[in-house]
Amino acid sequence: MSSGAYDDVPIFPSTLYPPSELTFASVLPSAHAVLEGLCASPEGWGPWSESRLLDFTPCFENAVLLTIPNLFLLAFGIPRLVGLLSTPSPSVPRGRIYQSKMLLGFLALLISIFDFAFVFVSGASQDGTRILAASLAVVAYGFALGLHEVEYFKARISSTVLLLFWMMLAVALSLKIRTDVLIGEDPVVVYSATFKLFLAVSMFILENVPKPENYYVSLDDDPNVSPEEHASIFSRISFHWMDALMKLGYRKDLDMDDLWNLRQIDSSRTNSDAFQHAWSSEMERKGPSLLRVLLRVYGPTFASAALFKFIFDILQFVQPQFLKMILQFAGSWDHPSEASPPQPLYRGVSIALLIFGGALIQTAVLHQYFHICLMTGMRLRAALVTAVYQKALRLSNKSRQGSTVGEIVNLMAVDSSRLMDNCQYLHILWSGPFQISLALYFLYDTLGPSIFVGVSIMLIMIPINAYLASKSRALNKVQMKNKDSRTKMMDELLNGIKVIKLYAWEKSFLKKIYEVRERELLTLRKMGYLSSAQSFTWSCTPFLVSLTSFWMYTIVSGQTLTSEKVFVALSLFNLLQFPLSVFPNVISATIDASVSFYRLYHFFTSEELDKTAVLHESMTVASAKPDHRNRLIVDNGTFRWDRPESSSTTETEAILSEINFSLDEGQLMAVVGRVGDGKSSLLSAILGEMYKDSGLVRVRGNVAYVPQNAWIMNATVRDNILFGNPYNPQFYKEVIAACGLKPDLEILTAGDLTEIGERGINLSGGQKQRISLARAVYSRADIYLLDDPLSAVDAHVGRHIFDHVVGPHGILKDKARLFVTHGIHFLPSANVVMMLSKGRILEMGTYAELMNKQGAMFNLMKEYGKRREDTKHEPKATLEANKGPEALAAARKESVPQVPVAPVAPVVVAEKAARPANAQLISKEESAKGSVSWEVYKTYAESCTWTTLGMYLVLAIIGQGLSVGQNVFLADWARSNDAKRGEGQSGNDDLLFRLGIYGALGALFSLTTVGQVIFVWVYCAIHSARKLHKEMLENVIALPQSFFDTTPLGRILNRFSKDQYTVDEVLPRSFQGYLRTLFVVLSVLLINSIGSPLFLAFVIPLGFLYLYFQRFYLSTSRELKRLDSSSRSPIYTHFQETLGGVTSIRAYSQETRFIHTNEDRLDFNQRAYYPSVSSNRWLAVRLECIGSLVVFSSALFSVLSVLVFGTVSASLVGLTLTYAMTVTQTLNWMVRQSCEIESNIVSVERIKEYIDVAREAPYEIPEHQPPASWPRHGAIEFKNYSTRYRPGLDLVLKNLSFNVRPKEKIGIVGRTGAGKSSLTLSLFRIIEASSGTIAIDGIDISAIGLFDLRSKITVIPQDPVLFSGTIRDNLDPFGQFSDDQIWRALESSSLSGHVASLEAKLMSPVLPGGENFSVGQRQLICLARALLRKSSILVLDEATAAIDVETDNTIQKTIRAEFSKCTILTIAHRINTVMDSDRIMVLDRGQIVEFDSPKTLLQNKKSVFYSLAREAGQAH
Question: pTM here?
C-alpha cells in the first residue's frame, strides 16, 4: 500500500480487505459481548473466514445472510397481505401451478421445522445464530405459504415480495451450502440445505411462470391490454414485457392494430379529469398557480423517481473506489515491495465482480428512473393538450382574437411537448449539485486540499453559465415568437391558398414568410454561437479543474501523481463532467420550459365566455310559468364584443343597445338591416358569445344555430347532419327532402356516405349551407337561430327551403325561429319583423303594421321590394359589428366548387353503414415503410453541403484524437512516476513540461469542440434549414388546388411546424451526438485492445450480441416513431377544425362530444408514443448490460494478466478501465442517437415528399410571356374544352366550345352541379384541361405562365377572404398603387366612409381572415381589389351575395360604370342579376344547353333559362 499525506481510506473494507484486517466485532464494539455470546463458531463473526478463500464465517451466514431474506419477507409481505385481503376475489380455479406451489411451500415449511428440531437434537443449541436462523425460517416459510395462497386468488401477476424472497434465499443457501461442505458440517445439515435450495429455486421458477389469463379475465377487462400491466418485477426491470412487440416489429412493419391500448392511468380522459379537478380548485384561490396544480396531480409519481436517481448517483461514485482498489492490486504486482507485497489473485477477481454487479444495479435503477419520468411526462402532456382544447372551447371573443390558430396549435404541439421532455431531466436540478458534491468529496479524499483550486474554477464558471443560460432563455423566447408568426402565416396561407392562386399573390406571401423565416434563422444562428460558448465551458471546465488540481497537488504540496491518484481522479473528473455539462443545459431547458409554462398559464387564465350572459331554462321549468310559450326573451339588453376594461367605456361602444323582444313557440321573427347594423351580433348575443352590459336574455329549451358561413366537418354528409344525434332513417329522409338536398346527394359518389373534405372543400357554398341547415333541423331543437340560411342557394331552392323548412308551413312551423335575412320578399310571411339600425331596434311589429306605419321598412319595400320580391333568393348574410361569432370559421372557410360526377344510384340516402370505396376524399397519410432510404440521407447531406460536413468530421476526429492523446499522455506520466516511486526517486523532475503538454492538449481539444458546434449549428443546421424549408414552401405553394382539396391543412401545417423544427434543431444535435459517441466507443475499443489483446476475444461476441439487439430495436423503433408522427397530425387537424366551428359546437351543446374525440385522438397518438419510449429503455438495459460486461472483461483481463505475464502495468489498467467505464453510457447513447437520427430523418423524408410532389404548370415562362398590354380586348374562346378536378374523377366540363366577344357581358346560370364555377376555375387554370383549349385574345392560356394569366384576370369570389396585415396590404400587396388610387377604389366600392372612420385609415390592421370586418365589408374590399386591377376580364362569382339590397344596388351601378369596357363573366344564383347581360349561358351537367341573349331565351318557353327565370319570378 502507498504511503503519503493523502492516503485513501477504503470505502468498503469489510468486503475487500483480508480477513485479518477487519472483524465484525470491531465494526460494532458496543455489541461485542452480545455477539460473542450468540456465536459458537471458533471463526467468530468474520465476516470473512481466515481459513478459507472467499468464504464467510458460519455465524455471519446464519445471523445475517440467511436472516435477511426472512426479515424482508415479513417486513414487506405483511402490508402486502393486508392489502390483498381487502380486495375482492375472482373465481379462480386451482390449477397445476397452484397445486405445485402449495406442495413445494408445504415441503419447505416441513423441512424448516425439521431443521429447527435438529438444532436441539444434534446438540447445536448453544449456537444462538443457528437457533435464530432456524426459528425465523419456520415463521417465514409458514408466512410464505399463506401469502402464496392469497396471491394466487387475489392477484393476477407474480408477487414481487415472493419473487425477491425466494431469489435472495436461493443465493444465501448457495453460500451456506458451500461453507458447510468446506467445514465438513453434518451431512444431514448439508442435505437439508440442499433440499431447501432446490425448493427455493423451484418456487422462484414457478412464481415467474405467468398465471393463465383466462383465470382472471372479466367482462370489463380490455382484451388489448398492455403486457406491462401484468408483468413481474423482473420483467419490468429488464423491460422483458416489450420483447413480443420488438420481435413483431422486426418481422413486419407495425401498424396501430399491433399496439396495445393505453393503461387506464395513462389515458387522456383520466389525466384530463384529474387536471381539470385540480385546476378548478386552484382557480378559486386568490393567486392560481399552474405549477401547484401539476405538483398536486403528478408530484408524488414524479417524486418516486428521485429514489432511483439517488441510488444511481451513489452507485456511480462507488465505481471509482473499486477502480482505486483494483489499481492498488495492479500496483502491488507492478512494483512489489515489502511494504506493498502482491495481493492475492482472488482479491482482484472479487473487485472485478463487484464492479460488474454495481454496474448492473446502476442499469436497473437508472432506467426505472427514466421510465417513471417519461411516463409522468406523457401523462402531463395528455393533461395539458386536453386542457388547451377544452379552454379553446370556452374562450371569449377577445381571448380568441388574442390567440390565433397557429399560436394555440403551438401550445399543443410545442409547449406541452417541451414540458413533457423536460420531465426526464428535471431531477438533475437536485441531482446535479448532489453529484458535484460527491465528486468533490471523493476528489478531496484523493488529491486533498489542492482540489479547491479546481472548485474555484467551477465557481467562476457558475456566473458565466448563468449568463449564457439567461441569453439562451431570451433567444428561445424570441424564437418561439418567430415560430408563432411563421405558423400563423402558414395557417393563413393554406386556408386562403385558392384566393392567393386566383390573385397570383404567391410572391407577396412568400416574401412575408421568408422575412419571418430569416429572423428565425438569424436567431438560430445566434443560438448556435451561444451553444458553442456553452460547449467551450463544458469541455474546458473539467480539463481546467484537473489541470489546476494536478498542478496544485504536485507543485504546491510536492506529491507525486501515481496511477492510483491519476486515474481515480480522472474517473471522478469524468463523473464531474456530466453534472457540470448537463446541469447548465437542464437549467437552460428548464428556463425554456418556464417560457412554455408561462404561455400555457397565460392561456389557461385568459378570459372565458360570460356564463351569466344568458339564462338557460329547461322546457320542464318553462312549462310551469305563465308565459310558458315564450321561448326567447331579451329585456333591455345591451351587448358588446369585449368586456369593458374600465368604467370610462362609453355607451356608443356597445354593438347592440336597448334590445327588447320576445319570441314565442311557433313564431317566425325576421330580422333585417344594412351591413354592419348588428343582425348577426343579435344571434351571437342570444348564444352568449357577446358580453352583456345590462339587461336579461332568457332562453327556454334547446338551441339550433345556422351560421352565415356554414361550418362543415371533415366527415360524411350523414355525420355532418346527425352531428352526434341518433340516426332515425324516416326523419332523416324528411329533413333531406325539406332542405333540398335530395338532388345533391344523387350526384355524390356515395350518397350521404360521401366524405366531405376539410372546410367542405368539395361542396359548393349552397350545398354547405343546406347541410348546415339540415343539421339544425335534424337536431329537433326548440329555438332556431337562422343567420340567413338561404344565402348561397339557387332561387328555386331558396323558395323550396323557405316553404318546407323556415316558413309558416315548413317543418319548423311549431318552433321558435329567429330569421336574419336580407331577402325582404320573405318578410310578409313572418309573424314579426324587426328592423335594426346601428345596433338598435328601429322598428318592430307585424309586416302589415310596419307597412301601415310607412316608416323605414315601408321605404325599403317601396324602393327595393318590387325589384327583388320575385327573386325568391336571399343574398348571403353578413357578419357585422367587426367580430362575429363565426369569425374564426370565416377566416378558415375557402369555398371550392363541387366536384360533380354522374349519378350512381337513385337511392339518395345510403341505408348500409359500410362506406363505398369511392366515398373517401381525404387521402390517408401514409408513413414510409422499412429503412429510410439513403436518398433521404443524401438529401439532408446535400442541404448541409458536403464541404461543411467534411470539415466537421475532420474536426471531430482531431478532437477525439486530442482527447485520447491527453489521457494517454497522462497514463505515461503516471507510469513514469510509478517506476520512479518504485525506485525511491522523485517523480516531479519534468513537472512543468508534463503539465504544459497536458494543458496544451486540453486547450486544443476545447477549441476543436467549439469548432465542431459552430460547423454543426451555424453552417450545417442553418444551411439545411433554409434550403429544405425554401424548397418545400416554394413547391407547396405551387401545388395544384386538388392537393389542398384532398389533404388536411393540419397535415401540411405539421410539415412546416413539427417536421421543420426537427430539421432545424433536433437533427443537428442527433448527428453531432452520434458521431461524438461513435468516436468515444472506437477509442474505448482501441485502448482496451492495446492494453489487453484478450479483450478482443471477449468483445467480438459482445459485438454480435450488440448487433442482435440493435437489429430488433432499429426496425421497431423506426416504425413506432413513424406511427407517432402520422398519428399526431389528426390531433392538430381536429383542433383546427374545432376552432373553425367553436360557436356552432357551443350552440348545439356538443362540447363534451368534441372533447372526447380530442381525447381519443390523443390516446391514439400516445399508443404509439408510449411503446416508442419504452423501446428505448428496452435497448438501454440490454446495451448497458453489454457495457457492464465490457467493463468486467477489461477488469478481469487486467487481473488475469498477472497469471500470464506475472505482472501488470497499473497505469495501463487505469487507462483501460477509465475508458471502459465510460462505454456503458456511451454505447447506449450511440445506439440511441443512431435511432434518433433514423427516427428524426423521417422528418426530412416527409419534407422531401412534399418537395417531390408534382407542381401545377410553371408560374412563369419567359419565352412565352404575353405582351404587357395583354389582354387588350378581352375576347375568350373555348374550343372542345373538357376538364376534371382530379385524375380518376368524371369530367365536370364536357366539350365546351363557345366564343365571348370583347367587352361582352355574359351571365352563367345553371342548377347546382351544372359546372358554373368549374368554368371560371378553368379560365384561371385552377383545374387544367383534359382536352381542348382556352384562348384569350388569341393566345392559348396553356402556353403561358400561371402568373401572366392570373395576374391579368380579375375575380371577385363568392366567399371573401382577407389576410392579416393592413387594409392596404389586402388591396395592394405589391405596392403598385398610390393612396389616392386606393381611396378612389374604396369610394367606388362604398367602403371609404368606414375606412376613413378607422384610426389608422389604410394602415388599419386586418385580423386573420378579416375577423374585424363583417362579411359584407370583406366583399366590398374584394370589389375594391378588382377596381384597382382594372383588367380587361372580370369574373363575378355571386360577388354581391353578402350585401344588403341598398348597397347591392350601389355596387351593381359601380360595376356597370367602372367595368363598362371589360369582358364580364357573372356566375349567378339569382336570375335578376344577369338579366341585363348581353348573353346568357345555361349549363347543365358540364355542357352548354343554351347560349343566347336573355330576350331570345325568354321568348322560347321551352328553354331551360325560361324555366329558371319562371321559378325566380322573372318570367311569366
Answer: 0.73
